[in-house]
Input
Amino acid sequence: MSFKDHFFGKKATNYEAKRANKPKWRKEAVAVSQLFPPGIKTVLDIPVGTGRFFKLYKERGLIITGVDSSNDMLLQAKMKKVKATLLLGDIRNLDNIVGKFDVSVCIRLSNWLEPHDVAKALKELARVSHTIIFGIRTNCGSEPERNSGHLWVHSHPIFVKALRESSLSIYDERVIDTGGYKVYRLCS
Output
């Protein structure tokens, strides 16, 4: 199954309904809520997907910008009828983003990225955000590996190196599962 098979067409339409009651989905939502820094006003959600975190953002009175590489996912987010700027884009090149956000949220994307693209994504997020909430599955080894034939389990040492190269450090983290999946609060 490729990226395009997963986030376009009917898969996009059913994406949230198939996951909303799963324990990992709920743990991610709790982690994002707990890792939000105080006093923020703006959020960049990438990939915004179906707008799953819109309720959290609305409760906090945030100005929302969402970016996704799938028009079909953006349509799902628009159907939530929340005031948000929604843009088609790619996390590896955020040239269409102007200004700096208080926080960027990136959940359920990093393991679709090739290992060298994780570093590009982190550099772009650091360029457009003060704080980043970032989900990633890593192993302790020196090399990344394919999981389930299409997702990456990234090397934790390589992830830490990418953080350093992006002038980011881990401020806090939440464990989502015992398979190395964590959500981090990253700061420059």
About this structure: The chain has a mean pLDDT of 88. The beta strands are 42-45, 63-68, 85-88, 101-106, 129-139, 145-147, 151-155, 169-175, 181-187.
